[in-house]
Write a structure and sequence with these properties.
By secondary structure, this protein is α+β, with helices and mostly antiparallel strands. The chain contains eleven helices and 16 strands. Helix 1 (about 25-40) crosses helix 6, helix 4 (about 125-140) packs across helix 5 (about 155-160) and helix 7 (about 185-205) packs across helix 8. The radius of gyration is 23 Å and the shape is elongated.
Length: about 425
């Protein structure tokens, strides 16, 4: 890594202005539609039917708040020969007909599958939805081709099959579409990361004995919402003996002098997500702390240096230690610690990089991919650990960095 982390990726602000080129939302919507259409045409499917929130948004550029995430009460359909259809929750359909002109007004409909079974399937709601979908497939000339779905309630699946439709995996088509980001997606991801840069500055100033892990969660959540975040999905806040092994959940533990503490901030700006770890030492650091951090930094720097178009994800995974080398019995138990994952409207897009999956089924790294790389090293004291994560954009000849809060060396807060 360079002596001081810098980036060539713009993060110009969250307001649209007339005096500077920023995110072009029309271009963004057009790009995503064309990517989805091309991925569909390259598959054996006649249509994709999507329920997963990020796929619905990718196809339709509609959003009704985080309460609706992954309740399977909103769904969208795209055929080879048509434009997106959206079935929405109650009055949201009328709202989108009024305020989302990129959706054909006759293709923004109310829908209800039964609130995940709360309205029993014998109500006929799943059957009605299946009939609507089948009619569109007939009208758009793809009824004799398989339909792909990403995630689906069993009652709806059975009704589609009862109509003679062949239902296959559509998630791979959507992930194929989403893996390469355009300039607008990259700018939104950069802006999301810039907001977290600022939150880490706030954390560095308040992280001292007497502060609890959940206090940091509250601080980070409040600041992100103030800064324009659409959703704060999760804040990992881990300190002291809770650092090793990683518990993946915060508590009300008080931070103490000499603790290591690491944080992961996952939020969305206009739908585009961060996953951004940083590690701190509170007041002072031992040699064990410095050694663990240096090793985690070494592993992540090696991975970043290896990233360029044409490289396989297996080549990245091989640079990281085996599970047994840092205290775990298997790659399954160590999954997510030496790790890479695509970022976009979803938290885990392509590529997924780890020893668990990449050695046997590698994916080619391509220009325009955006992903996070994260490493973890337990300290020799048996209780502390270092955790680092960087978000990168794959460029023609390497990569560029989105995450800029200092991480070259272990950051000591409120130093004694």
């Amino acid at each position: 890594m360079a002596e001081f982390a810098q980036s060539g990726i713009a993060a110009p602000g969250i307001q649209q202005v007339d005096w500077e080129q920023r995110v072009d939302m029309d271009r963004l919507r057009t790009y995503r539609f064309e990517r989805a259409k091309a991925a569909l045409e390259a598959s054996e499917l006649g249509a994709v039917l999507v329920f997963e929130t990020s796929n619905v948004r990718y196809l339709t550029a509609t959003h009704i708040g985080t309460w609706a995430y992954n309740k399977t009460e909103r769904w969208a359909l795209l055929t080879r020969n048509g434009t997106p259809w959206i079935w929405d929750f109650g009055s949201a359909a009328k709202n989108h007909r009024m305020y989302s002109p990129w959706i054909n007004s006759s293709q923004s409909l109310g829908g209800n599958l039964g609130l995940q079974g709360a309205i029993a399937p014998n109500s006929g709601l799943p059957a009605d939805a299946a009939q609507e979908i089948a009619e569109i497939l007939r009208n758009e000339g793809v009824a004799d081709m398989p339909i792909g779905v990403d995630t689906i309630e069993l009652a709806v699946l059975r009704e589609l099959e009862a109509l003679g439709l062949e239902v296959l995996d559509g998630q791979q088509v959507m992930l194929n579409a989403r893996e390469i980001k355009n300039v607008d997606e990259i700018m939104l991801l950069s802006q999301a990361a810039a907001m977290v840069d600022g939150v880490y500055q706030d954390i560095s100033e308040v992280l001292k004995p007497g502060v609890r892990e959940n206090d940091i969660v509250a601080l980070a959540t409040s600041r992100l919402i103030e800064m324009g975040s659409e959703q704060v999905e999760a804040i990992n806040s881990i300190a002291g003996e809770r650092c090793s092994p990683h518990p993946h959940v915060f508590s009300d533990r008080y931070v103490r002098p000499g603790d290591t503490a690491y944080f992961d901030i996952i939020h969305a700006y206009n739908g585009y997500r961060t996953c951004y770890y940083r590690t701190f030492a509170v007041g002072r650091a031992t040699q064990a702390h410095h050694d663990a951090y240096a090793k985690a930094r070494e592993w992540i720097d090696a991975a970043i240096q290896a990233v360029k178009p044409g490289v396989g994800t297996d080549e990245i995974a091989k640079l990281w230690p085996k599970a047994e080398e840092f205290g775990f019995d298997s790659e399954m138990e160590a999954f997510g610690l030496q790790f890479g994952h695509g970022l976009g409207l979803g938290l885990h897009e392509r590529p997924i990089i780890s020893r668990l999956n990449s050695l046997e089924t590698p994916v080619e790294i391509k220009e325009g991919m955006v992903f996070a790389l994260e490493t973890y090293c337990p300290a020799k004291d048996g209780r502390s650990a270092a955790r680092i994560e960087e978000e990168i954009v794959v460029t023609a000849d390497g990569s560029d960095l989105l995450t800029l809060f200092p991480a070259e060396e272990l950051f000591i807060t409120n130093k004694y």
